[in-house]
Amino acid sequence: MAIGAGNQNGIAVTYSLDASSKPSTKTYAWGNNAYYAISPNNTSTLRTPTEMLGRDNTAIIGGGDSIYTIDKDSQLKISGLGDHGQLANGSEDNSTSMVPYSNLRRMTVQQQLMQ
Predict the structure, then answer these.
(1) By C-alpha distance, which of 96, 41, 47 is closest to 67?
(2) Rounded CA gap, 18 and 10, in Å?
(3) Distance between CA atoms of 99 and 88, rounded to whole angstroms?
(4) From CA 77, how far away is CA 101, in angstroms rounded?
(5) Cα→Cα distances 69→4, 6, 19, 55, 75, Å
(6) CA distance 74 to 91
(7) Does the pTM exceed 0.85?
(8) Cβ pair 76, 104 in contact under 8 A
(9) What is the side-by-side strand order in the sheet with 76-80?
(10) What's the CA gap between 33 and 38, in Å, rounded?
(11) Which runs of consecutive H residues, i.e. helices, occur in the chain?
(12) How far apart, in whole angstroms, are the C-alpha atoms of residue 49 and residue 80?
């Protein structure tokens, strides 16, 4: 299990094996969702842990009113408040869905080549 916290919310990833012994994860979130950070298309406060559909994450971090996840394909995705560029997409708009950050893989490969 992994757990993280934002400004006024919490997130957790649970790990299990499915029927074919393949690893599976589920992401849950709760708390203040004013900027869609923990549940897209909904700004309601989540008073109990609620499964976040479509997020097969392996790592999570809460940051203020934004959330950062890394999925099973090592893709960094960010959602939530973007008024200071937190979404790393060149915008100051909020996002109601997970915004992929495509430069992470390139940076990782370049760093490995430089070593």
Answers:
(1) 96
(2) 25
(3) 9
(4) 6
(5) 10, 12, 25, 9, 8
(6) 23
(7) no
(8) yes
(9) 57-63, 66-71, 76-80, 95-101
(10) 6
(11) 103-114
(12) 18
SS3 69: strand
Token couple for 103: 């430069």
**pLDDT tens-place string over residues 15-63:** 888 888 887 888 888 888 777 777 666 778 888 888 876 567 888 887 7
User: Tokens in use for 7?
Assistant: 């400004």
Among residues 36, 35, 28, 34, which one has the least CA distance to residue 4? 28
- Count the neighbouring beta carbons within 10 Å of the beta carbon of residue 38: 29
User: Could you tell me the CA-to-CA distances from 95 to 20, 57, 108 in Å, in that order?
Assistant: 35, 18, 25
